[in-house]
Amino acid sequence: MPPFRKGGGRGDFLMKNLWSIRMRASQTVVTTSITHGRSASGSKKEIHISGAEGLYGPSDIQRVIKKYTERALAHPKGKADKIVITVENVKQKPKEIPGLPIATVTCRTPAEGKKIVIKLLESLGISRKALEAALETIQKSTMRGAAIITAGKGNRLEPDRERGVRISRLGISKQASRLLSSGLSRIEINTDTVKEALILASKVIAHGDVIAELCVSDDPHYTTGYIASKKLGYVRIPNIKSRGSRTGGRAFFVKEGIMVEKLINYLEKTPVIITSISPCRGTFFIDEVVNNPHK
Ligand code: WAQ
Ligand code: MG
């Protein structure tokens, strides 16, 4: 395959013939409630097990469907009984963006993690009220998407608060993916989880209305979370939650007074591809990160 050149001959086929592949896996649970101590009534509820999405070239479709199906069937959150995979050709030309720079902060316990989250968000100008609103939704851990929260007043903006906003139509060019993998390998974190999270955060933060993102995985075994922002890049926080905890979720902190429909349309619909990579750095103390902004 010819190498991709930015602004050049559009050598990367990803730019010409893009497919959006999305997966969501769920489990139906029957909740029984006893009414007046006698009759039991059952109601069905779908709980979110796993989801994945990306932009790919036509020759990747079969491999990605296999990968997503395997992920849905072997998820630590539980046994899926419904898997929906959507494969859709994207006509619009993707927007090209750079990946965020990556760093990790030292953090040994969830208590320390909370202090780090407070410190990082404070340095980004996000209010305590907004942080509390984010922690509340992450604590509940019932959404399959993300909450949109205003950075000052802490208002929730997304129309469907049960589901949240699901970021879609995002990907990485082959060349940028190779560079990212080698950068991540040097710091021994070259995994699909890190790569996918970095791609998602880079798309979210590339929008002018978004100041920062807070993410905690809902996978009980994955205890590293992150805060992403234009100012500080993608900052990984190990031990943000305790092992075995099913707590997880995402919150986007946005400026006050934005047009939320426009932002949601960008997050869900606009195809965005990472075509260049920023530095992958090692581990730092929180103060070193806060005192060395990129801009
Ligand atoms: N759009 C919006 N929200 C999403 C999306 C999406 N495409 N995917 C996941 N979420 C939300 C949803 O509420 C999940 O419950 C929550 O985020 C966590 O998703 O550097 O694995 O897929 O070591 O469990 C981050 C750290 C890993 C990576 C994140 O998230 C690193 C992770 P998960
Ligand atoms: Mg998960």
Structure description:
The chain is α/β, with parallel strands linked by helices. The chain has 2 domains: 17-92, no CATH class; 96-291, no CATH class. The chain is built from 7 helices and 13 strands. The protein has helices spanning 61-73, 110-123, 128-140, 174-186, 192-206, 260-269, 286-290; strands spanning 18-35, 39-56, 82-90, 95-98, 102-105, 146-150, 170-172, 210-216, 225-229, 233-237, 249-254, 272-276, 280-284. It has a 7-stranded mixed sheet, sandwiched between helices. It starts with 17 loop residues before the first strand and ends in a 5-residue tail after the last helix. Mean pLDDT is 92; it is low at 1-11. Bound molecules: pimeloyl-AMP (WAQ) and magnesium ion. Residues 51, 53, 143-146, 166-167, 193-194, 197, 200, 215, 217-219, 222, 224-226, 236, 248-250 line the site of pimeloyl-AMP (WAQ).
Question: How many DSSP H or I helices?
Answer: 7
Oligomer: single chain
**Largest sheet: spatial strand order:** 6-11-8-9-10-5-13
Approximate helicity band: 25-40%
Number of DSSP E strands? 13
Q: Which outline best applies?
A: globular
Main sheet record? 7 strands, mixed
Question: Which stretches are poorly predicted, pLDDT < 50 over at least 5 residues?
Answer: 1-11
List SSEs in N-to-C order. EEHEEEHHEEHHEEEEHEEH
Give the count of structural domains: 2
Radius of gyration: 20 Å
Query: What is the rounded distance between the termini?
Result: 36 Å
Secondary structure class reads: alpha/beta
Hetero compounds: pimeloyl-AMP, magnesium ion
Strand content: 25-35%
Mean pLDDT figure: 92
